[in-house]
Amino acid sequence: MSGRVLVVDDVATNRLLLRAKLSSAYYDVVVAENGTQALEMARREQPDMVMLDVMMPDMDGFAVCEALKASSETAHIPVIMVTALDTPEERIRGLEAGADDFLSKPFNDLALFARVRNLMRMKMMFDELRLRDMTSRELGIVDLVPEPEVGIEASGAILLAPPNPGDGHVWAGQLRRRLAVPTIVTHSEREALNLARMELPDCFVVHQSLAEGGDGLRLVSALRSRPETRQAAVILVVENGDVQTAAKGLDLGASDYIESPFDVSELIARIRSQLRRKRYSDRLRTNLRNGLKLAVTDPLTGIYNRRYASQHMNRVMERARDTDGVFAVMMIDLDKFKSINDRHGHDAGDAVLREFSRRLQENIRGVDLVARFGGEEFFVAMPDVDQRAAAHAAERIRRAVEGAPVALPGGGEVKVTVSIGVAIATASDLDAEAIIKRADTALYSSKEAGRNRVSFFAKAA
Ligand SMILES: [Mg+2]
Predict the structure, then answer these.
(1) Three-state SS at 204
(2) Residue 86: its pLDDT value, please?
(3) Are 284 and 335 contained in the same domain?
(4) Are 368 and 279 contained in the same domain?
(5) pLDDT digits (tens, 9 = 90+) for 347-372
(6) Catalytic amino acids?
(7) pLDDT for residue 199
(8) How far away, in angstroms, is 2 Cα from ligand 1 center?
(9) Distance set, CA 411 to CA 68, 347, 349 (Å)
(10) Which band of pLDDT confidence, cut at 50, 70 and 90, is reported for residue 85?
């Protein structure tokens, strides 16, 4: 997997060193020598990752990181802070600034490349989501930026898988003193997976070796392969200096790792950073779902559009074939709608459409599908409904509209009626458009016969 890395360092030899290492692994490298230039390059070059020196004369690495994370153009780019002083305080400060990881100079190549691969993979996942999210943004949904401050308390429980009961007790105690979050301690892989399914924690802290000969790496891999935990934050705890295991864990999909024994403040900062990332991806996914919903619904009435109804008809027909059943299709048209628009204005017309779709939905069953086909034309598909039941339903809809005038937004009200055409289809009907056409023909008969009535399609002899 290749990608573009922006290397930021005020010292030329450091830039050259990193460029050489990364280029040898076929990454495309661009460099900046100070914070201002880094921000400009990040925006222009859109790298897949930033490796950021902490100590720089104009803006230090923390300030650059904060600025990158505060802009919607660069917030999604992972940042690795590169530091000579590797202290927990410094790591915590970096995590709070939004950094994804730290590397200390001189570099350990294994740690460097495992981290780069892991962050590249995460970046690709985000890119995919962001790409799809563009559609929603084009449709007017607000742009998303990761939240700078994430309340760990708002998330679910944290599941701890320590190497032994003693450590489990210590971990849970330390977290409890600092956070008002429930912690669940488990000692076996199997129990961890069962608890994961029941409790759905947002975050897992897993030691490389679990009690009873359990394997932390295997647990990480299992958590990543299951749909219910795939998006959770997983932090691997490795023995101090065990870069091999850390690298393997990252390649298996751990979101992050921490070396044991750890400072609990650093663990909390890492959890917070992972949850921030998780929350961002959750919001992108939600946005995507909303975007999809927008693509198949009519914005005025909130009911489905024709595109969705056509797909849905295939399912209704399949069901009729499977059960050798029947179903009904209705086309409904508001009578003399044009004159309502002409006389009372388009706002009044819109109000009538909304009120009609509300009454329509009130008078059908949950399994029936209602869609607006465009203009004042509506569609209903009713599975398992025969001619008698369809006549009853159509008549109920007609009366619900005729029964009470519609209040207009500017005051006053207007009387509205509908014409309805119904077609009954059977298991042998294979063409959705043909069925809709029959309902349309029946609708035309209702109009011809004087409107405000229900007609059935009568087979031509
Ligand atoms: Mg420096």
Answers:
(1) strand
(2) 77
(3) no
(4) no
(5) 999 999 999 999 999 999 888 999 99
(6) 376
(7) 78
(8) 26
(9) 52, 11, 13
(10) confident
Are the C-beta atoms of 254 and 234 separated by less than 8 Å? yes
Give me the pLDDT at residue 335, please. Answer: 97
State the virtual CA torsion across 11, 14, 16, 22 in degrees, nearest 10: -140
- 12 CA → ligand 1 middle, Å: 10
Enumerate the H helices of 148-188 as residue ranges: 165-178
How large is the angle between the packed helices 61-70 and 35-45, nearest 10 degrees?
Answer: 30
The CATH number linked to 39 is 3.40.50.2300
**CA–CA gap between residue 45 and residue 103 (Å, rounded):** 23
Question: What totals of helices (H) and strands (E) does the chain contain, helices first?
Answer: 15, 18
Distance, CA 52 to ligand 1 centroid (Å)? 9
Whether 209 maps to a domain, the answer reads: yes
Q: What CATH number does the domain containing 358 carry?
A: 3.30.70.270
How many residues are given for the chain?
461
Report how far apart the first and last C-alpha atoms of the chain are (Å, whole number): 67
Of 419, 423, 416, nearest to 448 by C-alpha is 419
Question: What is the per-residue pLDDT across 390-426, written as a single tens digit (0 to 9) for each?
Answer: 999 999 999 999 999 999 998 999 999 999 999 999 9
| Residue 340 · residue 416 · CB < 8 Å | yes
Distance in Å, CA 60 to ligand 1 centroid: 8
CA distance 263 to 254: 19
Here the tokens at position 322 are: 């499977």
The pTM score is 0.66
Between the CA of residue 414 and those of 60, 125, 160, 355, what are the distances in Å?
Answer: 68, 53, 64, 11
- Domain containing 417: what range? 304-456
